[in-house]
Design brief:
Mean pLDDT of chain A: 94
Oligomer: heterodimer
Strand content of chain A: 15-25%
Radius of gyration of chain B: 24 Å
Distance between the termini of chain A: 8 Å
Number of helices of chain B: 20
Low-confidence stretches of chain A: none
Radius of gyration of chain A: 11 Å
Shape of chain B: globular
Strand order of the largest sheet of chain B: 10-9-12-13
Mean pLDDT of chain B: 96
Number of domains of chain B: 3
Chain lengths: 79, 473
């Protein structure tokens, strides 16, 4: 599974660093390091909906507060 | 509000804007010969002896706007017919000489080069004069002047000579591409090649054919430019032009500073490698010191390399204050990462070629880098960032930076280092006075520019370089 988090300016201001850090932690905590590839990109062209996250081409709008819920429902559940 | 410092910049801008307009409309080939007449339409000359000379020079400017002479490897070129062949005779007595009786000029001249006519008016014997300037200093009437060409005064690396036709010519080996002569020539006879057509081509192809996206990497000195608008509006303007994403070169600076601070502590002595004019100067004037130049790519190349390695189908345009970056982008080590380089002057022309009034746009945002990456744009910022890198990485090393503001200070420090008498372990080499904010490709050079950079630095969301680069792989 490939997760791409937007680290462009707009998403950065909305907290993409926190989203990346939380995802790194959750991936490690759940032992999914070898199954998930976490990467960044500088713009997904969807700045209003930031923080923009793509999971295998599927788009999600995530906030630093909703990372855990997003991870449980859209990543862990699909593994 | 004035957009440019000088009328020369404005003239160059008008040419660039027109060339760009025609390029967007796919009519450049058809109309290229008419551009001089579009810019100078009437019969009355406003700049030179006649409109025909004005147009002849303008057609040379059009060539420069379209990439210049491909046979000439230098990104800085002289437009021969625009060179006014300024007097370059050195020290001369002017008609302000009152034929006084004191003759201080004669007394101070150790070479016996000064003589007097029957009216006691001084004359300098050029075969004896060594251009020391003492006579000019002591004359109570300031009657002795030093006639030097502004381009030669501007060029501190002495790369400008006078050719057999009495026009300025550039020694390409010595030239560091810094653009000081471009900014200083009062006739606009020296200019930097423009790659604005490459940029337009990339933007058009990306929009019409797709298959790749165009990223803009912008230098932090942008915060001291386009002062008539808000930075967010400049970013919005870039997106309107067709850039997919705008990334701060300062994020590359954060990456560089972290690596460079480790490199200094490992090697014990280092010079920076961010400023391409400084690096070229070391290569040509102090080749023995080349092993001490940091092995890091510049912030521009570092962030562009990162983007190209992590994203597919990306073209990158660097936008900055610097003419030497145009030369840096041609280096084999940098060429794979940078597809075109544009100055702020050229960006202004690009905006206006699309009639984009950026002050009317809704503000976008630019925030990737930390405070430290952003202050690279001004003299001293790189050293502050290196010190911060040492602190953030808990490296046990005492940094003693020598901050060289302008190429003359660089020369002094390099000279001392070559003689092993330099009291410091890090040379921050910036070819332009003030750092990048003094670059030749800036729209304006203001006294408040340094304060603008510091203000912009403090606005960064990330306060440490570690945090800024933590989102990168």
């Amino acid at each position: 599974m490939k997760i791409t988090v937007c680290i462009g300016s707009s998403c950065h201001i909305k907290g993409s660093r926190s989203v990346v850090e939380q995802l790194q932690y959750l991936i490690e905590e759940n032992g999914l390091g070898d199954k998930i590839e976490l990467g960044g990109t500088f713009c997904m062209g969807n700045c209003q909906k930031g923080v923009c996250v793509n999971v295998d081409e599927e788009f999600f709008s995530v906030t630093p507060d909703s990372v855990k819920e997003f991870f449980e429902n859209n990543i862990k559940a699909k593994m | 509000m004035r957009k440019f410092d000088t009328k020369i910049q404005h003239l160059k801008y008008k040419v660039l804007r027109e060339v760009a307009r025609q390029a967007w409309n796919d009519s450049l080939l058809q109309n290229v010969l008419d551009i001089p007449k579009i810019i100078v339409p009437g019969k009355v000359p406003t700049m030179r002896c006649c409109v025909y000379k004005e147009r002849a020079i303008l057609s040379e400017r059009v060539k420069m706007a379209m990439g210049g002479d491909p046979e000439n490897p230098n990104v800085i070129q002289v437009i021969d017919i625009a060179c006014d062949e300024c007097p370059a005779a050195g020290y001369e007595v002017t008609d302000s000489c009152r034929g006084c009786l004191a003759h201080r000029c004669e007394d101070v001249c150790k070479r016996g080069a000064i003589s007097f006519d029957h009216n006691h008016v001084a004359h300098i014997d050029k075969s004896k004069c060594v251009e020391c300037g003492q006579c000019a200093k002591v004359c109570p009437y300031f009657a002795i002047v030093n006639r030097k060409r502004p381009c030669q005064i501007a060029c501190k690396v002495k790369a400008i000579k006078i050719n057999s036709e009495n026009a300025a010519c550039i020694d390409n080996d010595k030239c560091t591409n810094c653009g000081a002569c471009v900014y200083q020539c009062p006739f606009g006879a020296i200019t930097d090649k423009s790659y604005i057509l490459n940029v337009i081509d990339l933007l058009k192809k990306s929009k019409e054919q797709g298959g790749f996206k165009v990223y803009a990497v912008v230098a932090p000195s942008i915060s001291s430019q386009f002062t008539y608008a808000k930075l967010g509006q400049v970013i919005a303007g870039l997106k309107k032009l067709g850039f997919h994403a705008i990334v701060e070169a300062a994020l590359g600076a954060d990456m560089v500073a972290m690596k460079e601070s480790r490199e200094i502590s490992e090697k014990g002595f280092l010079t920076s490698s961010c400023c391409p004019a400084f690096v070229k100067y070391v290569k040509t004037a102090f080749p023995d010191l080349l092993p001490h130049v940091s092995t890091n790519l510049s912030p521009m190349a570092t962030i562009a390399k990162y983007i190209k390695e992590t994203e597919e189908n990306v073209k990158i345009v660097f936008i900055g204050p610097c003419t030497a970056k145009k030369a840096e982008a041609q280096l084999e080590s940098v060429r794979p990462y940078i597809d075109a380089v544009m100055t702020f002057e050229e960006l202004q022309a690009l905006f206006d070629s699309r009639d984009l009034e950026i002050t009317e746009l809704e503000e976008d945002v630019l925030d990737n880098a930390s405070y430290y990456g952003r202050i690279f744009a001004r003299s001293g910022g790189l050293s502050d960032a290196a010190a911060q890198g040492i602190k953030e990485q808990n490296i046990d090393f005492e940094l003693k930076p020598i901050i060289c503001n302008g190429i003359e200070e660089c020369r002094t420090a390099l000279m001392k280092k070559s003689k092993n008498v330099l009291d410091g372990n890090f040379i921050e080499g910036m070819a332009c006075i003030g750092g990048c904010i003094g670059g030749a490709g800036c729209l304006t050079h203001g006294v408040k520019d340094k304060a603008e950079i510091d203000k912009y630095g403090k606005e960064a969301l990330e306060k440490t370089m570690t945090d800024a680069i933590s989102v990168l792989k």
